[in-house]
């Protein structure tokens, strides 16, 4: 205790002695050295971190009038932007994506994409290095800037890093979403899936609004009337199409009355991984709201459309149905599959396309909902042959089959000597050579549908539709009918024979070459 008091008393006495007597040994240099630490602390250069990493600077950052400056090339480069220095005008031009920033040394006005912006401080040249205000540059390039006063540090987060962090947070959230059993998914959503019947087709649909149903485009195209059958047996009249995308094979239809069941939320379905469990609800072959399970077998991109290949069994009538992931999220709209296989090679259009379609819906579009104009006219009676030929080329020039797309060319329309209305075309010979026999049943169905449409448009005509194989060969083939092989000149031979012969009046007959 006494020592402590002595010490406390000693300090003022020493101070008084120093004031009264000079100390020769304490030189001016020593005074400067003693004062230096305080000066250094006052002017210590701020540190700059970009995306959590310390930014290496070609010259130290410094603060002036509350604004921190850093070398221009370092900050532009760290934020993935290019920078150009114009020495004559002392102009700085930075570019990133669709952003262009123009600054001039000594001027407190900058340009962002040509628009003038006031600066808190102008760029300066110091020691041969061009410095720019770090906050202005960073924020102009979409980055966020925070000042850490305790660490004397500026912390910058680039938009790319912010996006990455947000995605990681989303992944963490997705991982914590509880998984649902098939029964839980059915209990939650079964009432929100409907059976759609039109005057030309039958499919399924998913309720996405008070009076809005999402389905496949091919379910509703060419329809002039339709109903939505609820799982409780209630039938709702569909009054038209609100919005559609033929490429994505999606359409949103409107019911005349409120549907009265919970709407299924439409997201972007990004939480879909190969091998994940899926549950499909639809009406295959008219069996309403049939439930099937499977997995995502593959993820396919075709002509800009994202498809989920699934093993869940579906069939005709499932088109437009709901595909749910294991968290109960709607991830796709079931749309098609391969027939005559036990592999369950089925596909659903990713819900991301439905989300984009839904975002484009306006109140006016809902108000103006109506059925789409039919792709085929009500009648072709009296139409010029050239007009009929053009229609056939546009509407029936190709058909997507299981194996490949079959194309038809060299269309002709005429009336023969016996008064028959004859339409003819040639099938791609390479397609027929490789896939013809395997595609015979599909070609038969296609021709039958075509016959139905032709009879509808030309009800008073006897119609014959002939599709032929036609190819010029360098040798004379054997084993064909005499009239199927004819000389083509220059030592070549033409092989031509009918592949499809469809005839229709009040009845229809089809012969497809096997």
Please provide a written account of the structure.
This is S1-C subfamily serine protease. About 25% of the residues lie in helices and about 35% in strands. The chain has twelve helices and 32 strands. It starts with a helix and ends with a strand. It has about 525 residues and is an alpha+beta fold. The strands form six sheets. Strands 26, 27, 28, 29, 30, 31 and 32 form a seven-stranded mixed sheet that branches. It has a six-stranded antiparallel beta barrel with strand order 14-15-16-19-18-17.
Stretches where pLDDT is under 50 for at least 5 consecutive residues are: 1-42
The biggest beta sheet is recorded as: 7 strands, mixed
Strand proportion: 35-45%
What is the oligomeric state here? single chain
Radius of gyration: 38 Å
Count of DSSP-assigned helices: 12
Find the count of extended strands (DSSP E, 2+ residues).
Answer: 32
The backbone outline, from C-alpha atoms, is elongated
Helix content: 10-25%
Q: Give the terminus-to-terminus CA distance.
A: 116 Å
Average pLDDT, rounded to a whole number, is 88
Structural classification? alpha+beta
Pfam families: Cu_amine_oxidN1, Trypsin_2
Protein name: S1-C subfamily serine protease
Keywords: Hydrolase, Protease, Serine protease, Signal
InterPro entries: Cu_amine_oxidase-like_N, Mao_N_sf, Peptidase_S1_PA, Peptidase_S1C
